[in-house]
Design a protein that fits this description.
By secondary structure, the protein is an all-alpha fold. The protein has 6 helices and no strands. The longest helix is centred in the first third of the chain and has 32 residues.
Length: 152
């Protein structure tokens, strides 16, 4: 997986000393890492739901497999648009949660604790993770396509 090699936080002076293209690459790496983290949190939330007794159509729960495949893709794909795949997966899970909530009430019951505290925790972890992936994947992709300043 492609993770940032420099884990230092940028101070204001360091950011001022960087060229605009270096700063854009740094922001993109951070956003891509947050996209991967969000997808992993989403998969962890599904695992918690599974541990809590949530029934899934087959083993292993498909959401875990899909989100982990997204982690691998976003982490190793060389294309600048790759993080938006993580955003799409995040949106897919959020829409699925809302549909299950409105159609059967199951999603909302899990979130509010009607089905138990562990299911509530799993749903919360899942939703926070995929929301993070949704937002950070868009930011990473946008940073990759931002116009580069002309060199003088």
């Amino acid at each position: 997986m492609r993770f940032p090699t420099d884990d230092r936080r940028l101070t204001g002076q360091q950011a001022e000393d960087m060229s605009p293209s270096q700063l854009t690459r740094s922001r993109r790496r951070t956003s891509t890492t947050l996209t991967i983290l969000g997808l992993l949190l989403g998969a962890a939330g599904i695992a918690i739901l599974w541990l809590a007794g949530q029934e899934f159509p087959f083993y292993p729960p498909p959401g875990i497999v899909i989100l982990l495949a997204g982690v691998v893709f976003v982490g190793v794909a060389p294309w600048p648009w790759a993080p938006v795949v993580g955003s799409g997966l995040g949106l897919f899970v959020i829409v699925g949660f809302l549909l299950s909530g409105f159609v059967s009430g199951a999603g909302f019951d899990n979130l509010t604790g009607v089905e138990g505290g562990l299911r509530s925790l799993g749903t919360l972890v899942q939703l926070v993770g995929v929301a993070l992936a949704l937002v950070s994947g868009v930011v990473a992709t946008r940073s990759a396509y931002r116009p580069r300043p002309a060199r003088s």
